[in-house]
Amino acid sequence: MADYDYPLPDERIAKYPLPERDSSKLLHYKEGQIVTHVFRELPELLPSGTLMIRNETKVVPARLFFRRESGALIEVMCLEPLLPCEYNLSFAATDSCEWKCVVGNAKKWKGDTIYFCNVSQSAEIEAIGLKADLVERDGASARVRFSWNGGRAFSEVLDLCGKVPIPPYLGRDTEQIDSTRYQTTYARIRGSVAAPTAGLHFTPAVSNALIEKGVRIENVCLHVGAGTFLPVKDGDVARHNMHREPFGVSLSLLESLSQSGVQVTAVGTTSVRTLESLYYAGVDCIEKGQPCEIEQWAPYSKDYRYSTEEALKALCDYLRSSGKSVLELGTRIIIVPGFKFRLVDRMVTNFHQPKSTLLLLISAFVGEENWRSIYSYALENGYRFLSYGDSSLLERG
Asked: Is domain 2-59+183-395 annotated with CATH 2.30.42.10?
């Protein structure tokens, strides 16, 4: 990981979004050349007929603060539902549900019932009576049972009681602006604890201009987990464990992707990971009769002899024969230098942290020396970095 480091001064990290989403800078990298644009000029840089894929996941206000009777403050952040295990059913629950959570100040929580910290003294929140019980600990995470009064859906409880979990590197608490700006304008399906930040620059005007240019816009959904914030603590990425993230892709989009010659522009690393996972799900259909969870090192485990079209066709055939209109799976895929990209030709993405798996993905996409020249250019030309920072359009050679 020492080879994927670069100096990032704190003042270059964008702590807040710009007033206008599409006024951010856009670095365009193509065949070794770098040019600065404004994001609203993106439609001018893409050829007609391009298929653009965006992640329509929606960030939930997943940070909750509780107090023990002793007075200790306990932070609980929801990661993924366990009972019910389906997101839609868990969000619709009206009295209790269980989630996998990260617990802050965990040593102070001895397993007793803790009660929501109603700092605002809201009568509405008080009537809900949200409380949490520790079911079991599991390493760095915990299984937590939430219960409440009044028959409200858990999604409403989170909207009233929760905070948007902005990235820790912003160095500040969640503010009102984050409830709208740490969310894409096309977010639709609840489930993420982190935004797919490449999409934060899009406005309806940019989307309409893309469509007028002849760019076809489609959506996938990958729920972004808290693991996206985790640094590679070990110096060797081979010992880094990627977190599982659930995703969904429609049969109609799979059919479009399976057509030869289609040019794909992925918005964000989450869309890239979703799309590139599809090939290995298709290989499973060919070899095992059904798609399986995509494991971290699957792309590097053997030589794959099937074409992308063959793999995607097998995936489409499986869904049709099963009567399904959406592929729903989980992926732990890690994209590192040496990865063979099979679907994505262009990528819209922000500028990522040093020594991160996301920077490894960028290096795999544009090449070792090229990512360095891109990031050096951005640092020398006043670009803003990380979640609320500027954007780039990267083209694969």
From this structure: no
